[in-house]
Protein 1
Amino acid sequence: MSLPRAKLVRNFPGCPVEATLSYLDGKWKGVILFHLMKGTLRFNQLRRKLPAVTQRMLTKQLRELEESGLVSRTVFPVVPPRVEYAMTPLGMTLKPVVDALAAWGDDYVFCSPEGRELRMSSGGLHAPASPLQAG
Amino acid sequence: MSLPRAKLVRNFPGCPVEATLSYLDGKWKGVILFHLMKGTLRFNQLRRKLPAVTQRMLTKQLRELEESGLVSRTVFPVVPPRVEYAMTPLGMTLKPVVDALAAWGDDYVFCSPEGRELRMSSGGLHAPASPLQAG
DNA sequence: CCGCATCCTAGGGGATACTG
DNA sequence: CAGTATCCCCTAGGATGCGG
């Protein structure tokens, strides 16, 4: 009753980064949060945003997010069924994280000019620097 | 020669968040970056920072980070061997991301007062709100 | 529309031992 | 010190089908 931390903290990670990442673990949690940040979505709406996700996996990851207290699941007892997913207040505290993730993806993975510049000059793969850059 | 993007982008993710997370994928990459952000480290120095990591896994994850261009590996041809790992310029662009991850972990996973408040009030697990909070 | 149950596989990741 | 090489297990995650 006084220990929601036990649920939230999964395997007592030693480092704050590790801790946070444990909640984003799984192939789809990050993207789910990213979309839910922008507003409540029904199951199939969410599914359409994630073209590659399986029904099973979407359900599973949503349940885990719910169990972590990051996402709320609201069932409307109507027919056909209507289930809405939304960020909880706790979930919303992840916004800076998700924003940072999204920003980096935009800048350095998708084809922006600055991203390409840096990729060239950092040269991990091609350009040997001073002593012995491994291959 | 003009396509480092092919190496960097692994499976052409559809969303920037997904893209970024694909580089943090694996059990240890986040923590590795977290520690390397603070400065260059030798293999065993890094290992001591990650008490639970296996030699094999540390090597593997470092190689993947290197291949992504986020981390550089410098071999000094001396005996005993000396290998230093450091962030590349591209890797350093992840600092805002890693900082955000670390901050959230500190605030909401480790036992800070605000974190506990929010966990109680967001009540994903216990407190039914209006219609039917699932259980 | 939303989701569970079942079956199945690839590969992530641990343990341990050996090398330059 | 900084790795490879083996073996082996486990489970994340895909495919498919049923049900309210």
Protein 2
Amino acid sequence: MTDGTAHIHDHEHCIDTAIARARELCGAREVKLTPIREKVLEIVWRSHKPVGAYDVLDQLARTHKAARPPTVYRALDFLMAEGLIHKIESLNAYLGCGEAGHMHESQFLICRACGTAEEIVDDALDAALDAATKRSGFTVERKVVEIAGVCARCQTL
Amino acid sequence: MTDGTAHIHDHEHCIDTAIARARELCGAREVKLTPIREKVLEIVWRSHKPVGAYDVLDQLARTHKAARPPTVYRALDFLMAEGLIHKIESLNAYLGCGEAGHMHESQFLICRACGTAEEIVDDALDAALDAATKRSGFTVERKVVEIAGVCARCQTL
DNA sequence: AGTTGAATGTTATGTTGTATCATTAGCCCA
DNA sequence: TGGGCTAATGATACAACATAACATTCAACT
Ligand SMILES: [Zn+2]
Ligand SMILES: [Zn+2]
Ligand SMILES: [Zn+2]
Ligand SMILES: [Zn+2]
């Protein structure tokens, strides 16, 4: 397939689930998932491809004329702080988190052919990261792991 | 210490060694380490902190009035292609490679207190990365591993 | 000398992200 | 009920990072 979705599925369901989960979490944490923040979350979730801030802005502006870069960056910052989205540093782009709720280190497989970024959770990998830093006496605050290449699907096309 | 060097050492020696090694490698590969490229390599090597492209430009312009952004980005691209420097994606900055010559995956420990980035080579970590991708049938082309936190030195200050 | 291709010069523009201050909206409480 | 507080958003401007496109120069080879 060429549209970058990892596989055929009911993607509206992905989006709805993510938003419902976000509402729950924000309610429990007593932070505000405002209309703008929710809309930005929905836009980010509309694809399984990382999406740039200015793409988000273009889409947000369709329904929210006052939208400007700070509008978007504030919403993205909030969503990242709450663990609802991640930033892919090597792409300067943002992606919905499928594991929102329990804080975790994000690790991504990024396909240059279809553009998808799959979030993986690999405890052995995470342990190896910790071991590497412990040896140096380094205190970890953030781990960026972004593996670029070609996904299994794209190799068979 | 506050200047961001990892430890007290003869840093001129670091620079000289890196440039000498770069000359060797480029000679052997029959690619051209031109004056501009060599100067950019030296500027990048002047610290153990990742340095932004426009910082490089400012420094390059001192001796090379015609320098413009493309001048710098072309040189940086060349140096990356030859494995002489790395880009730190999470900082949009560039750092000399201490292991130039044998191609390798780069893994960095980035201290937010002193700004240094230490390149580590951890085979167990690299193996864990490969294992994580093999399971998914993903073909790896590039691995970005950037661990941010506080280095051992800065914790004791 | 003439040809060729790589490197650099030059101008302009595209892309990503922040600083700053003004305004608005929700909430608490006198 | 309405003042006073804070969080969120609006609005303008700019900073920081990166590339497109085309012209010119330079070195190497004939
Ligand atoms: Zn989906
Ligand atoms: Zn793919
Ligand atoms: Zn040094
Ligand atoms: Zn440090």
Protein 3
Amino acid sequence: MSAGAVLDLEGLNPVQRAAVQHDEGPLLLLAGAGSGKTRVVTHRIARLLLEGSSPDSVLALTFTNRAAREMRERVFGLLGADDLPGLTISTFHSLGARFLRQHATAVGRTRAFTIYDDDDQTAVLREALNDLNAGLSAKGVRAWRRAIDQAKNAGLDAREATPPSEGALLDPAEVGARYELLMERADAFDFGDLILRPAQILTEVPSLAESYRRRWRWVLVDEFQDTNRAQYAWLRTFAPPASNLFVVGDDDQSIYGWRGAEVENILQFPHEYPAARVLRLEQNYRSDGHILQAANGVIAHNERRLGKDLWTERSEGTRIELYEGHDARGEARWVAERIAGLCREEGYAPGDVAVLMRANHLSLDLEETLTRAGLRYAVVRGRSFYDRAEVRDALAYVRLLVNPNDDVAFRRALGVPSRGVGKTSLARLAEFADARGESALAAAAAALDAAVLRGRARSGLADFLAALAAARAEASSPSAQVRGLLERVGLMEHLAHEDVEREAGEGRQANVERLLQAIESYEQETPDASLAGYLEQVKLVSEVDVAQLSGGAVSLMTVHAAKGLEFPVVFVIGLEDGVFPNARALDDRDGAGEEEERRLCYVALTRAERRLILTRARQRRTFGEVRHNAPSRFLRELPRGAVESRYVPEPPPAARAWQRRASGWPREHDPVAVAPAPSDDELCVDVVYDEFGGSDGPGFSPGMRVWHAQLGAGRVRKVNPGMRPSLTIDFDDVGQRKVLASFVAPYQG
DNA sequence: AAAAACTATTTTTTT
DNA sequence: AATAGTTTTT
């Protein structure tokens, strides 16, 4: 290491410094949000290297590629280095993929194996289930996919999966075996394999584990609360209790339980690693006082936690703002205006602002209003681009170039553009290939000889094979090879044709062109560029990882995607029961669901530095149906002192009804009378609490007998709370109707 | 076998 | 509301 660099530890607090300077033996660092844990990890790595440890001996594992990249850059910055060959800072999955490329043959794969994502996995499983004569509904197949995924996350084999209720009659051993056979034939690994297989290999070959153990003298794991059992098992093979394992985490920020993350890993760490030293970072350097109070207040409602309270030396700052829109559009309109106002009047820039939400689709209305308001925004979505049908089609061709046994890609590519090879021909081909124990493409030439197919199907397949062979023979750069193949098979032409037909299309051809350009720029940026390398990047690196945040645009993203980030101004939208907390998550895992949703809310709130603004809509369209959601229960948990004492809810859209009438629209649903907007005086903090922290309706509950003056007697099916609560009632005479609760009275008899 | 018509399902979060 | 998947028609 360059002897010149000196690490400055003066800027660190005593606990941070202790963690950086911790010597040998395991250490658990419980680091609250904004407590400077990345600083600690990067300083520690820098310190180790400065004191003479070889970069080879350091392994840092993160959860996302974004975190890995940030960590790497900060270490380089501290050391004034451009590169540190041998230093491994990587995600679990990237490391797993790298490991498996080296040991592929031990598990029946080649070095060129393909990584299958959820959709690919589902396609394989559909095949597997069909082969077992157990054709299931799409839902059933997906349920099995989840079951296998969960098994692998828990460190089990696919054969040990717990059958989902949709396909409970099937034997998991059979399903799992068939699935794994097809995966092996396709030379593919799923995401779970990237963790599970390395763990299995290292467990079976202790000498190999030993060599890694010797190499990685210093192992650091970030976001330890999000590791699953398989990751933990893998970790233990090369970082056993006696090693220098340094884990950092926060049980309050565990938000991946649905993916198999085990908070237990962090809770049990002191027992599993008895020699472990435990340090806590509780001083927050990110958020103003009110924001921190709000976050602490909400998370305090969780019972299963180690318990910690963040504190700050910062001033209390501005109180948290609340807004209630009439519907999602009203909410969006206000948010856009508020962002514009903060930029105009308080010196914030759009790039300082993030809008966080529970689910991706909640951004739709906002995107529209932001555009209209002339505010630049960037939606940080998981992997939207690569999920487009046409991009996946094009990628299928790329995949076949890299791995000819990739059966999922084969089926996909063969079908687009259509070549006269339909369902029946495909089934025949699959049967033929299966009998030979080969992948479809490997058996295709023989199938042509054996005249398995006739007529158009036969010539279509022959053309397809010829195009692939020609592309392979082409000795050009990877991107040129792909371009050539796509031209040869007429995909571009096909898409151009489709674009014309669809008129209002978003340019499918243009999207594939973008893909080709992405491959080209990958080629230019990467030293040993290969299509295989590109594909791995596509699978493992999401848009979230590469998003240029604060590039001057408002960031729109899910709370999950926002983890680890911070912004001067944070909006959290859609704070309604059923949305955030998400209804499905709530009945998950007996009660654990609500606590995880609350942790998610905690993560959202703690992203904010200076301003925190929470919004909800009284009604929202979901699945094409208007729903009146109660305010999020988390709003009720905000400490009053931290919340702005006044808020002005959006008045009901009386104006719109009037306009409709004026323009001659039918007036069937015009409200007869509309409540006036409440005056400011009515909106002191107590009202905020009643309205926001919402009543659950005026004493009605499902099952209750009620009376309506016009419609007669009935039974309450559903209570729809809100500003003007309504009830869905099964009337004895007229069937199900939705009526305002104020017109209904409880009724005996 | 392909296109058109119909239907069921979705929006929970992601490596 | 939009779409992916399924069935029917050509």
Protein 4
Amino acid sequence: MPRVNNDLGRIIKQQRITIPLTLQELAATSSVSSSHLGRIERGERFPSAHILRRIAKPLGFDEDELFTLAGFLSPQTSGVAEEKSATYGNRRLDPYVAKVLAEESIEIQRAVIGILNTIKLVAKGMSKGNE
Amino acid sequence: MPRVNNDLGRIIKQQRITIPLTLQELAATSSVSSSHLGRIERGERFPSAHILRRIAKPLGFDEDELFTLAGFLSPQTSGVAEEKSATYGNRRLDPYVAKVLAEESIEIQRAVIGILNTIKLVAKGMSKGNE
DNA sequence: ATTGACATTTGCCATTTGGCGAATTAGAAT
DNA sequence: ATTCTAATTCGCCAAATGGCAAATGTCAAT
């Protein structure tokens, strides 16, 4: 049995105990077998993202909260869920561009992206030839 | 060869091509083997959270963004481009399209629209000649 | 102490993940 | 077409995941 330093398991168990729930009850509400849950709590198994997602709400965690605790998300990323209006990453999508594109079907929209990619590919080839 | 509906793989590949990167280059910067990355892209494997996390930044995704796309987080939890694009007129702007385009400068975005208009003009002329 | 009812842990196994190296395919440059 | 090179896919394998059922542990109430 991997003797790794196990924070996640202790946190999960702590939360389960304080609710309080038994492993079987948590298993019932989360659709994860109690044996697997037990092994996760004592650090013998590491939960996949699917499993984490299933047990988050029954334990009263926000999804991103558990993911952060599991080390899947870095702390700063989560808990924001705000502003987000038109910014993707740092850049913005020009409102006029958005409006015009939105009038096309999804297929056309995707095709446009395809064309853009092709152009960039060609451009790359040209710059490669220059070096 | 699971014939599952594979959005994630296509999105990842699309993003990789757009950057552009080869599988091997992405493998180098993400520390995930190229063969595994390839299988993920064509839906033969499903990436674990660890893998997803490793490839997020090299691909220019926010961590929670990729997790949401993978179905590990529900859309509302994270700050991803999701139906935040709402409706322009009656139609919607595909979130993925919006995201890709937003990574380009405003000039490029406008140029893309220009190309689209040109194509539509050409198409119109062709159909006119047929009638 | 013994029984009974639950809760937890363990043994075992099927399935999946992910890496390495070989084979195949795709692109360039003759 | 041919050859050379880089990129992708395939075959195989070790390790990990997660479920089921049996074993073990815990704790009341006899």
